[in-house]
């Protein structure tokens, strides 16, 4: 009951929230759900697999451009393009995982950063396909031939796909495969001695993480309506990492809260005008000092404080 | 009896230093073999070569007739080879039960796809692995610590959990790296009995790297003595006890 | 002799990378984290130096000499206030704190000094001098010279001073160092101070050649990080050599290609190097003992 009730409440509020909001509110909800997919994928890679990436904006770009190009140039239905962009980003993820087989930590951070810079550079230079400096327009998401013209409609499709990813990630975290990834993170020598194929598991977790981020990118392009390579910089990769850690790496709830944080923090901070980035930075520092396990650990912390109050 | 483990002319050098030097020996199936030698004799390096964590420069290793060096490190569990580590290699943030389940997880897994989709096969695999883990923990009297995070357990208990992680896979060949380190005499005697039982009752082959001479002499069928990566003697405990070279190697170390 | 000016300007840029790269390695040895705010500390320090020049009218050379001690105090203070309280937590959290500091410094500079670029007075003569028939910029020579002096000082400090040796011991084995009576906690503070001092010097060195603005160090910290990884992030000399190599390579590739292509090329090269030599060009990877 302890987890079922809050989960039901969360699902109910996610489903009914748009009814109380205007178009801009719908747009923000879409962005929160899109970011939550990325946070979920980073939780998988970093929280479960222990592999760092500061290049997820690269996978996001592959998904966004891949889907936009398939819809625009090959007239592929949006749902198929989602699938294709996930596969494409997953393949690129396999490529990026190759250095992860040899290096880790800071070295892997630089390698993933390098990959994303190169990927975005290629997209920028390939103007016949991507519009290069001018960027490109992207069609609205559609479902079985019906265009989802408003963000209100698109939100429910994004939410459905997010739910699918949540389900997949929860399944994985509960399985022996998830246990194997944890084991590999904590001692790769012992995990391999227990029969875990390190190369296979590393390639898998990178590809899955990249694929989820790719699908998220496909939604991002379609909701925004246009793409330029400015949306896929290092700062974006770093803000992904930030939201995943601020939300909490070790749970699905953390990923959802991280997505909400990244979508809404700039909105709330806008009122502070020139101080907004300063406050954003101070918020990050404060979160890490007072909520080291992320927003997801807030209820547990409050409960502990409450108990201390009672005693 | 057929050989469970055959080591032929194994050599490994680290930047010119010969850690393992033209080493050969074999271990019969169902027997307990001790690998002893003074500090720095290269025992752990030998074990690392035999478990594919280190790759030798030359030589051949076969396990139950299979060429070990042709296989990657993660294939060993499938061949029935498990090991424990000198300085403990537990999955520190996981519970004792998770750690032990990991010992037999690879053999039961239903594959990534089934796991992502939460198919019944994946769920069943998990249930079987955890049931076996609970059984193994109980057999070692550790059922009470199953849901504790291993990093919070005392050192001795951690060693038992690591042993349970190796045993849960029902290995045919078990390699143990200094299991008695930090134990008192009574504990090490109990460990010796447990090792003999594993060999006699379950037919398990055991390679034991150990400093505790009492344990080695009482538990092993045969003993290989290594000094500076070379085998200087091999035989039954009685033979080793009487071997001049062995006595000199140990006395020499004690005198130095 | 057309290769000489190009080599020197490459080495000068590489020297700037190296100062930042060394700062990153020093902090990483003490705190096990890449300090994303390193470049912003340098930028902020450069702004303060510029204000000191303009408002207090201090001579340029005095400002350059003051940069190291003032930067040291700033870095040490940051470590005490922001890093030490969470140093027992996950390293990733420390990483995010340095990102937070990045935003705070970056934004504070904009609020205090605005967003327009400022000109920084030259530290060295501007007239090119003739060396072996080639025109060489004194600024390049000056940057290289100051960097070499700092590197030599660092070498002497870490290899031959008591405290430097203690710091190396603390990063290799904190537990044993503590047993030997080294205050491991203070080592982190000193490391942050040292790193910040080096960074501020690098900012002041590069400022006359670029401009002083909020974004001046962003690409430089990336290159410093990349160069240090290229050489080997675990060793100060290897990291410095990697940064110098990156600077020189860029100078030669830069004559052939645009700047974004230059960046992509640099990173593609680094990935390739890491695949072949996972510990960096100048460092041998040691196997973990089990």
- Helix/strand order of chain A: HHHHHHEEEHHHHEHHHH
Largest contact between chains: A-C, 42 and 46 residues
User: Which residues of chain C sit in consecutive blocks of at least 5 with pLDDT less than 50?
Assistant: none
Mean pLDDT of chain A: 91
Return the domain count of chain C: 1
| Distance linking N and C termini of chain A | 26 Å
What's the total number of strands of chain C? 2
* Beta strands of chain A, count: 4
Give the CA-based shape of chain C: globular
Order of strands across the main sheet of chain C? 1-2
What order do the helices and strands of chain C follow?
Answer: HHHHEEHHHHHHH
Secondary-structure-based class of chain C equals: mainly alpha
Gyration radius over CA of chain A: 19 Å
* Major sheet summary line of chain C: 2 strands, antiparallel
How many helices of chain C? The count is 11
What portion of residues of chain C belong to β-strands? Answer: under 5%
Rg of chain C computed from alpha carbons, rounded to a whole number of angstroms: 19 Å
Structural write-up:
- Chain A is an all-alpha fold.
- Chain A has a domain at about 25-235.
- Helix content of chain A is about 75%, strand content about 5%.
- In chain A, the strands form two sheets. Chain A has a two-stranded antiparallel sheet with strand order 1-4. Chain A has a two-stranded antiparallel sheet with strand order 2-3.
- In chain A, a hairpin with a 2-residue loop joins strand 2 and strand 3.
- The longest helix of chain A is centred in the C-terminal third of the chain and has 27 residues, at about 200-225.
- The radius of gyration of chain A is 19 Å and the shape is globular.
- The mean pLDDT of chain A is about 90.
- By secondary structure, chain B is of the alpha/beta class.
- Chain B contains ten helices and ten strands.
- In chain B, the strands form two sheets. Chain B has a six-stranded mixed sheet, with helices on both faces. A four-stranded antiparallel sheet of chain B has the order 2-1-4-5, with helices on one face.
- In chain B, strand 1 (about 5-15) and strand 2 form a beta hairpin.
- In chain B, helix 7 (about 185-200) runs parallel beside helix 8.
- The longest helix of chain B has 20 residues, at about 120-140.
- Chain B is globular, with a radius of gyration of 19 Å.
- Chain B starts with a strand and ends with a helix.
- The radius of gyration of chain C is 19 Å and the shape is globular.
- Chain C has helices at about 5-30, 40-55, 60-85, 90-115, 140-160, 160-170, 175-180, 185-205, 220-230, 235-255, 260-275, and strands at about 130, 135.
- With about 290 residues, chain C is an all-alpha fold.
- Chain C starts with a helix and ends in a 14-residue tail after the last helix.
- The interface of B and C includes residues 48, 53, 54 and 85 of B.
């Amino acid at each position: 009951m302890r987890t079922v009730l809050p989960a039901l409440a969360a699902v109910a509020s996610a489903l009914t929230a748009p009814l109380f909001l205007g178009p801009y509110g719908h747009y923000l909800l879409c962005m929160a759900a899109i970011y939550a997919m990325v946070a979920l994928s980073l939780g998988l890679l970093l929280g479960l697999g222990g592999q760092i990436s500061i290049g997820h904006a690269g996978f996001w770009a592959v998904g966004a451009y891949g889907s936009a190009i398939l819809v625009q140039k090959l007239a592929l239905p949006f749902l198929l393009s989602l699938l294709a962009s996930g596969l494409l980003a997953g393949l690129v993820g396999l490529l990026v995982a190759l250095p992860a087989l040899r290096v880790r930590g800071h070295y892997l951070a630089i390698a993933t950063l390098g990959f994303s810079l190169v990927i975005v550079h290629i997209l920028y230079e390939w103007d016949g396909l991507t519009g290069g400096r001018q960027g490109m327009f992207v069609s609205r998401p559609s479902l079985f031939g019906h265009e989802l013209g408003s963000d209100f409609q698109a939100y429910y499709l994004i939410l459905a796909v997010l739910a699918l990813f949540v389900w997949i990630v929860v399944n994985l975290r509960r399985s022996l495969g998830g246990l194997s990834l944890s084991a590999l993170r904590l001692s790769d020598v012992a995990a391999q001695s227990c029969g875990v194929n390190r190369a296979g598991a590393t390639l898998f977790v990178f590809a899955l993480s990249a694929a989820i981020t790719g699908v998220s990118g496909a939604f991002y392009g379609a909701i925004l309506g246009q793409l330029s390579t400015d949306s896929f910089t290092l700062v974006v990769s770093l803000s992904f990492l930030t939201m995943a850690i601020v939300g909490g790496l070790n749970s699905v709830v953390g990923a959802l809260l991280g997505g909400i944080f990244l979508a809404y923090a700039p909105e709330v901070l806008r009122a502070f005008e020139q101080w907004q980035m300063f406050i954003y930075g101070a918020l990050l520092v404060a979160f890490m000092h007072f909520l080291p396990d992320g927003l997801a650990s807030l209820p547990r912390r409050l409960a502990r404080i409450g108990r201390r109050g009672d005693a | 009896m057929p050989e469970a483990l055959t080591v032929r002319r194994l050599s490994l050098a680290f930047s010119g230093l010969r850690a393992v030097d033209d080493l050969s020996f074999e271990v019969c199936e169902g027997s307990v073999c001790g690998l002893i030698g003074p500090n720095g004799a290269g025992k752990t390096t030998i074990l690392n070569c035999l478990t594919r964590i280190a790759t030798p420069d030359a030589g051949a290793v076969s396990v139950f007739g299979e060429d070990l060096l042709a296989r990657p490190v993660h294939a060993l569990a499938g061949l029935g080879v498990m090991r424990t580590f000198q300085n403990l290699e537990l999955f520190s943030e996981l519970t004792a039960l998770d750690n032990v389940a990991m010992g037999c997880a690879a053999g039961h897994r239903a594959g990534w796809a089934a796991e992502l989709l939460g198919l019944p096969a994946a769920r069943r695999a998990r249930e079987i692995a955890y049931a076996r883990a609970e059984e193994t923990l109980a057999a070692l009297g550790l059922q009470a610590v199953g849901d504790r995070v291993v990093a919070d357990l005392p050192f001795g208990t951690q060693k038992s959990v690591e042993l349970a992680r190796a045993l849960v896979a029902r290995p045919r060949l078990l390699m143990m790296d200094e299991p008695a380190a930090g134990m008192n005499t009574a504990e090490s005697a109990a460990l010796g009995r447990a090792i003999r039982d594993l060999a006699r009752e379950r037919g398990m082959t055991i390679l034991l790297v150990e400093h505790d001479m009492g344990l080695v002499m009482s538990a092993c069928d045969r003993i290989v003595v290594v000094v500076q990566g070379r085998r200087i003697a091999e035989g039954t405990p009685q033979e080793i006890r009487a071997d001049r070279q062995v006595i000199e190697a140990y006395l020499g170390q004690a005198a130095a | 002799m057309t290769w000489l000016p190009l080599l020197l300007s490459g080495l000068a840029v590489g020297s700037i990378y190296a100062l930042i790269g060394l700062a990153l390695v020093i902090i990483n040895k003490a705190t096990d984290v890449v300090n994303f705010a390193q470049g912003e500390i340098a930028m902020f320090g450069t702004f303060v130096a510029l204000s000191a020049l303009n408002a207090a009218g201090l001579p340029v050379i005095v400002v350059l000499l003051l940069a190291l001690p003032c930067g040291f105090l700033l870095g040490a203070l940051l470590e005490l206030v922001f890093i030490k309280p969470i140093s027992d937590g996950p390293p990733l959290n420390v990483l995010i704190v340095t990102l937070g500091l990045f935003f705070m410094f970056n934004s504070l500079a904009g609020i205090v000094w605005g967003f327009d670029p400022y000109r920084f007075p030259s530290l060295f003569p501007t007239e090119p001098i003739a060396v072996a028939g080639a025109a060489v910029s004194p600024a390049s020579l000056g940057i290289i010279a100051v960097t070499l002096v700092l590197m030599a000082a660092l070498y002497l400090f870490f290899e031959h001073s008591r405290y430097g040796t203690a710091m190396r011991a603390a990063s290799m084995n904190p537990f044993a160092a503590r047993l030997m009576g080294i205050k491991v906690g203070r080592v982190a503070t000193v490391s942050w101070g040292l790193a910040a001092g080096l960074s501020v010097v690098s900012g002041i060195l590069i400022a006359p050649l670029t401009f002083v603005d909020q974004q001046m160090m962003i690409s430089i910290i990336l290159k410093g990080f990349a160069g240090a990884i290229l050489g080997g992030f675990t060793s100060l000399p290897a990291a410095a050599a990697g940064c110098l190599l990156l600077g020189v390579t860029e100078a030669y590739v830069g004559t052939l290609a645009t700047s974004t292509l230059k960046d992509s090329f640099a990173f593609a090269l680094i990935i390739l190097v890491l695949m072949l030599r996972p510990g960096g060009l100048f460092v041998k990877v040691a196997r973990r003992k089990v």
